[in-house]
Design a protein that fits this description.
Elements (H helix, E strand, L loop, with lengths): L1 H12 L1 H4 L11 H16 L7 H15 L19 H11 L2 H4 L15 H26 L4 H12 L2 H11 L2 H16 L3 H12 L9 H11 L6 H25 L3 H8 L15 H18 L30 H21 L3 H18 L9 H8 L6 H17 L10 H23 L32 H8 L14 H25 L6 H26 L4 H4 L1
Helix pairs in contact: 3-7, 3-8, 4-5, 7-8, 7-10, 8-20, 10-11, 10-17, 11-12, 11-13, 12-16, 15-23, 16-17, 17-18, 17-23, 18-19, 19-20, 19-23, 22-23
Enzyme class: transferase
Main location: endoplasmic reticulum
Pathway: Protein modification; protein glycosylation
Length: 566
């Protein structure tokens, strides 16, 4: 027991080497610091922009946690935007609310502050999001320190300049940056061998936003097989369990004391909201809904009697989609089973061979599964998969191609969130410039000798070309795949990180979808069929994200080679 406790103490004492240990001390690399400062300046320019109802949601949560006792946090219904995040996020909101009365007391007034969005209140709330992003910057810095020097700035830029994070957090208004920072920091610790600390941070993340629980099975199986092993595996398991449960106990303990756990769970898991959100997240259920709409129209044309559902096509309010007309209804249990089933190949892989180098991909894949098959998924949830995968984009041209395709589709699918005309140039430019910049930077990174100074042959990898370099010149960062490539086993549609003709054609199609949704439909139909453009965007993007999910599934389901398991 003393040996295991000593190991845990050593892990805590060695946290500095696991957090930024490969860089100069714990100081942030100058290139990453400049990237963080540049994106912060951009965010300052966006302060006066449109904000969604999520602004009032979080302002109300600041008021609840600041003005009410803890036992009333999950009972208060003064506003329709009741607190429905786990307790650690509530404490985080309380922390952000502490200076608010000095700026404007109405920000944290539960009753008088309803729908309050005075300029100083907006500035204060925007500032809290920007301040919380410091954790994301630090997490990216910590992970980048494990990469070769030539890849650090590129990986950091791909995450920090994500147009999805900028649009969702700093225009639409949310706090995804700090949550994804916790996730990346946890992954970085596990990659560096700090399993217990990584597990504790993930538990903190779950107690901040429960929707991250999709990766729970991945963490559980990995830590069980990687950390809880050896002659003291039982003691290690007890130490790990105690560490994680202590976080959960600290977060939910007060509500156990007040006997409010059923009420808290009711707030966290409102299954009555329906299968899909107002704007269908581009996942399997968007395709399912679209198929139901098409089948219902065809059935009516054929003279078949089909139930009429008011608002089934043009509705948009939560829980008012009208249900399915032809296809069977989908239940929360079915979506949960599909998520677990899609995770099985990944879990089996980790069980057989838990490797720190593969952990990031497995976590990102789990969030992609949750996005594809989860219940009442919001379109913003795609960021939980896209942002971590940005850190893999620098590993090989093949990884760059996968990321470039998925991120382009994902960021395009977020454009309908910003629906006001004044934000149209901003969202289009942010997305287009990011796509151009990542394409150019990744192409430049893989076009030279990069991290191999002994190589005199440039490695050409044009991200927008279907032509492939010599397969022996590049590696994917996925060892068993590299072994198969070097062995010359067959050919694949994806050519080592390059976009195939199919992928290029699909991405070009996004331009025509945007032209119709934003310009042609309003000009021709005006206010008729208002949900049709959203349905088109959601369905088309769902096809692309489903394709990207299949690519990731093929990777995690592939049997490791003997060489990679040694």
């Amino acid at each position: 027991m003393n040996g295991s406790l000593g190991g845990l103490v050593g892990e805590v004492q060695g946290a500095r080497s696991g957090i930024g240990g490969h860089c100069q001390g714990a100081r942030m690399a100058p290139s990453i610091l400049w990237i963080a400062l540049a994106v912060t300046c951009l965010k300052l320019l966006l302060v006066p922009s449109y904000h969604s109802t999520d602004f009032e949601v979080h302002r109300n949560w600041l008021a609840i946690t600041h003005s009410l006792p803890v036992k009333q946090w999950y009972l208060d219904e003064t506003s329709p935007w009741t607190l429905d995040y786990p307790p650690l996020f509530a404490w985080f909101q309380k922390l952000l609310a502490l200076p608010a009365p000095l700026v404007d007391p109405l920000i944290v007034d539960v009753k008088k502050g309803l729908e309050y969005d005075a300029p100083m209140a907006v500035l204060y709330m925007r500032a809290t999001v920007m301040l919380s992003d410091v954790l994301l910057f630090f997490a990216v810095h910590n992970y980048a320190c494990s990469l070769p020097a030539s890849k650090r700035a590129l990986a950091a830029g791909a995450v920090i300049f994500s147009p999805g994070l900028i649009m969702v957090d700093h225009i639409h208004f949310q706090y995804n940056g700090v949550l994804l920072g916790l996730l990346i920091l946890s992954i970085g610790l596990i990659k560096s061998g700090r399993d217990v600390l990584g597990g504790v941070l993930f538990a903190s993340l779950l107690c901040s936003k429960h929707l991250f629980m999709v990766a729970g099975p991945v963490y559980f199986v990995y830590l069980l097989r990687h950390y809880c092993r050896g002659p003291r595996k039982f003691v290690r398991f007890v130490v790990l369990a105690a560490s994680v449960l202590s976080v959960i106990g600290a977060a939910f303990g007060p509500f156990v004391y007040y006997k409010q756990i059923p009420q808290v769970m009711l707030r966290l898991f409102p299954f009555g909201r329906g299968l899909t959100h107002a704007y269908w997240a581009p996942n399997a259920w968007a395709l399912y809904n679209s198929a139901d709409k098409v089948m219902s129209v065809v059935a009516r044309k054929m003279g078949l009697r089909v139930a009429e559902r008011a608002g089934a096509l043009t509705g948009g309010l939560v829980g008012e989609s009208g249900g399915h007309v032809v296809l069977p209804e989908v239940t929360p249990l079915l979506t949960a089973l599909l998520v677990l089933l899609s995770l099985l190949p990944c879990l089996v892989r980790i069980w057989r061979n838990p490797r720190p180098s593969e952990f990031l991909r497995c976590v990102a894949y789990s969030y992609l599964c949750g996005f594809m098959f989860g219940w009442h998924v919001h379109e913003k949830a795609i960021l939980t998969a896209v942002v971590p995968l940005a850190l893999l984009a620098v590993e090989s041209p093949e990884e760059a191609g996968r990321y470039f395709f998925l991120s382009t589709v994902a960021h395009f699918s977020l454009l309908p969130l910003l629906f006001e005309p004044r934000e149209y140039p901003i969202k289009v430019l942010l997305t287009a410039l990011y796509c151009l910049a990542t394409s150019a930077c990744l192409q430049d990174h893989f076009s030279g000798s990069s991290d191999n100074p002994q190589s005199s042959e440039p490695k050409t990898a044009n991200l927008m070309s279907a032509k492939s370099p010599d397969r022996s010149e590049v590696t994917s960062g996925w060892p068993e795949h590299d072994a198969q490539v070097s062995g010359g086993e067959g050919t694949e549609a994806r050519k080592q990180g390059l976009l195939t003709w199919l992928e290029r054609g699909y991405l070009i199609g996004l331009v025509f979808v945007e032209l119709y949704a934003s310009w042609v439909h309003p000009a021709l139909l005006g206010g008729k069929l208002p949900f049709l453009p959203l349905m088109l965007v959601s369905t088309y993007c769902a096809l692309g994200i489903a394709y990207a999910w299949v690519l990731q599934l093929r990777l995690v389901a592939r049997t490791p080679s003997k060489q990679s398991m040694q």
